Amino acid sequence: MALSMLLPRIARATTRANVAPAFRCAAGPLSFARRWASSSSSSSAQPTAEDISRLKHLRNIGISAHIDSGKTTVTERILYYTGRIKEIHEVRGKDNVGATMDWMDLEREKGITIQSAATYAQWGDTNLNIIDTPGHVDFTIEVERALRVLDGAVLVLCSVSGVQSQTITVDRQMRRYNVPRISFINKMDRAGANPTRIIEQIRTKLKLPAAALQVPIGAEDAFEGVVDLLTQKAVYYKGARGEDIVYADVPSHLVDTVQAARDELVATLAEVDDEIGELFIEEKTPTEDQLRDAIRRATIARKFTPVLMGSAIKDKGIQTLLDAVIRYLPDSTEVKNTMLDLDNNEQVVDVVPYSNQPFVGLAFKLEEGKYGQLTYIRVYQGRLEKGQFAYHVKTGKKVKISRLVRMHSNSMEDVDSVGAGEICALFGIDCASGDTFTDGTINCSMSTMFVPESVISLSLTPKDKNSPNFSKALNRFQREDPTFRVHVDSESKQTIISGMGELHLDIYVERMRREYNVDCVTGKPQVAFRETATKRSEFTYTHKKQSGGAGQFARVIGYIEPIDPEQQAELPHEFVNNVVGGNIPTNYIPACEKGYMDGLQDGFMVGHPIVGVRMVLQDGAAHSVDSSELAFRLAAFHAFRESFKASNPRVLEPLMTVEVSAPLEFQGNVLGSLNKRKGLIIDTETQEDYCVVSAEVPLNNMFGYSTELRSATQGKGEFSMEYKRHSPVLPNVQEDLIKEYQKKLAEKK
Ligand SMILES: Nc1nc2c(ncn2[C@@H]2O[C@H](COP(=O)(O)OP(=O)(O)OP(=O)(O)O)[C@@H](O)[C@H]2O)c(=O)[nH]1
After folding, report:
1. How far apart are CA 72 and CA 102, in angstroms?
2. Which residue among 74, 117, 148, 264 is the one 20 to 30 A from 568 at the CA level?
3. 555 lines ligand 1 (CB under 6 A)
4. Does residue 190 have its Cβ closer than 6 Å to ligand 1?
5. 461 is in an annotated binding site
6. 66 known member of a binding site
7. Ligand 1 neighbour 135 (Cβ under 6 A)
8. For the whole model, what pTM was predicted?
9. pLDDT value at residue 409
């Protein structure tokens, strides 16, 4: 392979390493050694009383859930009750204009949330920054980004389906970013609504101590309101849109149920909160205030999730949910955030969450809207003011903040300044999502966001090959979305786009057509296979060229070995330099590492990237005149390729967790359809007259499943799918894939 073909790939690999540290070198620039430090690089000035009060009345919250649980419907109600919108638009329906938060045309057509939209609202004397996050697994990066910058979240669950596969994913993401959560059981009007079962699922499936703060009055069609267990009052949502809250005595038939639920709440809190625990042992009844304080403490400490309930579509339960958000979710001073001090060996230092500190903000989302390029920023400390300069930490460039806005879905309000803890948006800033900005007085970087592996790819060819918009659009999409990747296949010279699922890629192809006027022909979707080694393999490789001009000489000695599968999510590749005694001069070691990275780009079996292989360099030889960086890079590249061939390599494929729900009568058909696709059934659960089947199925076998499921269940079945891990393909499948790849190569010759 020519070196000119390798170079762009190295640039890509390095960029990826910046996003999600993947490469580790025993010593050198790619080492990510970090130390915790109690010190802070910020000034120790006391925050003003005004700032403290502002922050006490500010909440940054996200609304997350499994697809279709009703997040957008809930958010729409929040905007309505907080006075941000004058009318409620439903998410679905032929003649609707679309919910306010689902503003992209495509979202409206497909009825799903694709991009999260930020908006802010006021409830009582508290400001809320709300991010509506997509539930579809293909847009998981949006959920990750939202959680990274939020201080608390509302986990919406369906009263019938409860904890679903995507709920578990979202919960895992919330744990990763230490986000406290309130649970909201929505759709209490649905037939089969059962909050007790859902709370039990939160406890068992999410392993999260949970208890209801309310009991429902009526169920399904007759759902009227709730009884608040703390005030022991019935709450009804009256008026045309549930805007009139009416308090009343607990209906007599619910008195015993309310007492039992309150006892359960106290008992659950006693397990996670010392103060309630002591009262419990002393058999004392906690007061309403003691309970509220304990719920807040335990929620913020992420030891407990309070559970509320309602029906967004019937305009019930939203105002009480908002009260709970303010009461139990933390303000930004109650959340610990850290950053890396770049002047001090990447020491981890605490963010000081007040406005009188040097400014530090994180660009967490880019968006090309109708108003131009927008960059969403979470201000972690300090203040961002219109007219001031901000420093882009990665490039060291100074940018002028010419316009500062607060977003309200797709409209905006201009503001002059925003303080610590706020979320705002800037215009015309050149950066990628995940980049840090400061005021230039400190050199810190917020740690990066987790970026998942892509699982599917397809070739993309513009109908008009000369359109400059093709690469412009691809560049922009990549900057907006780190899970959307683009490369040119070295064999076919085709542009290949990769992402998190068919829908994810479809959306970009469609956006290319609508926003950039570029029609494309797409190839058949291909799953993102990987290749890996299964045993250690030694190498001694000499690169030598003597024909005319300057000679080339480099020798590398060492071995490659599989990385422990448990470690691979964090460490997909590793280069270790164990050369002692200077047989390879240290200035050639980075070139050896580059050669290794070149070698990882495509395996020889099916032409997909190689993962999970460590290269250990032990010895070698150099020549005082003929050795060069290029010679060592090529030596390491060929050494890696040769030893990989001898390492009993295997082809890996993405394995998905698939969850199918359908009426019970179709259970047999659902199981049959999954078996046919070589699915491993993990769990089968029956809920009322519904069944939920979970299975692990290779992504390669899932093409066309929605059509099959539709006909197998008379259109009544639904499924969701989430990436689990890459796992070895069956030997016969591997043989077929290799043959197919060889055929493709032969055709090209
Ligand atoms: N019965 C009932 N249906 C509801 C309720 N809330 C929402 N829905 C319906 O559930 C469907 C999904 O609602 P959305 O608000 O789009 O859900 P979402 O979680 O935002 O969906 P994604 O953005 O695609 O993940 C729509 O058809 C809503 O009308 C509710 O309280 N009861």
Report:
1. 7
2. 148
3. no
4. yes
5. no
6. yes
7. yes
8. 0.69
9. 56
